[in-house]
Write a sequence for this structure.
């Protein structure tokens, strides 16, 4: 049997953990897993990489009413706690909603694109009385490209905060540095959103939960233990969140191993905070996008 052509690709649909519908994407360049529940990329690994790129909790819960811990949760149409109703789910409802497949394509460069759509006939219309469609375009190749496009199908503008809340696998958090945000201003969520300057590269030796504002920069996760750098390039975003729960918060999360903080870090591509809330006018669209790639350390 001759080897398949370089553009050979496959998308297989199957019931994954918890009976949730999954798509497995494989081509000559990479493999990926996508949960249609939540529009949630749970795994990505280029064939050239010896380690997974995304971190997925070994204690993740796969339930239609719960967000999967790890991978790339889609936080939409609000980031964090709802601005006026703390009883609503943190990070919005897209990541706990069923998405539909709208397109598949094998691309000339050998990558594969899977498009999912969420028509936000919202489960909380009284709180989010807007009409929108959400399109998630996932392109799997040497790099992983994620594009989240919101279209306002209603007749009134609405405010939007959102995130591609990406969990990355690292060899050992104590050996990792994150570059790209040197000199940026950040809001420290652990200190009442106090504004501080980022002094040099980011190192993590405690709980970190920061919103970096006014930044369109690529972030680089330098990981000498895995002899690699993960680059996160972005568009449609002027804020970046960096999060590691560290010891005590990791223990408080039932779907997060107590030692999980040692091998993960979140570098999130966002529209977050007063500086980067998006207003989507009727008939208009906004795209939040990230391209994740692996380089030598
Ligand atoms: O992006 C950081 C953050 O807002 C943290 O405060 C923490 O809550 C994290 O998101 C995870 O949120 P989740 O609702 O997925 O447990």
């Amino acid at each position: 049997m001759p080897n398949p052509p370089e553009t050979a690709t496959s998308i297989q649909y199957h019931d994954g953990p918890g009976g949730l519908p999954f798509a497995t994407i494989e081509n000559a360049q990479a493999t990926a897993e996508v949960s249609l529940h939540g529009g949630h990329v749970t795994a990505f690994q280029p064939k050239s990489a010896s380690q997974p790129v995304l971190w997925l909790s070994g204690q993740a819960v796969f339930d239609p009413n719960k967000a999967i811990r790890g991978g790339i949760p889609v936080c939409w149409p609000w980031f964090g706690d709802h601005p006026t109703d703390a009883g609503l789910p943190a990070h919005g409802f897209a990541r706990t909603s069923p998405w539909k497949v709208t397109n598949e394509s094998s691309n000339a460069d050998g990558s594969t694109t899977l498009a999912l759509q969420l028509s936000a006939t919202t489960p909380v219309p009284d709180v989010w009385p807007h009409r929108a469609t959400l399109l998630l375009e996932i392109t799997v190749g040497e790099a992983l490209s994620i594009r989240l496009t919101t279209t306002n199908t209603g007749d009134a503008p609405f405010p939007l905060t959102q995130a591609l809340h990406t969990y990355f696998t690292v060899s050992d958090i104590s050996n990792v540095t994150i570059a790209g945000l040197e000199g940026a201003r950040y809001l420290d969520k652990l200190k009442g959103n106090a504004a501080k300057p980022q002094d040099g590269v980011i190192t993590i030796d405690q709980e970190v939960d920061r919103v970096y504002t006014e930044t369109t920069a690529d972030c680089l996760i330098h990981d000498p233990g895995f002899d690699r750098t993960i680059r996160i390039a972005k568009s449609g975003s002027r804020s970046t969140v960096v999060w590691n729960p560290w010891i005590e918060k990791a223990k408080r999360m039932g779907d997060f191993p107590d030692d999980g903080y040692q091998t993960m870090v979140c570098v999130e591509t966002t529209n977050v905070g007063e500086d980067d809330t998006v207003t989507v006018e009727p008939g208009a669209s906004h795209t939040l996008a990230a391209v994740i790639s692996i380089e030598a350390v």
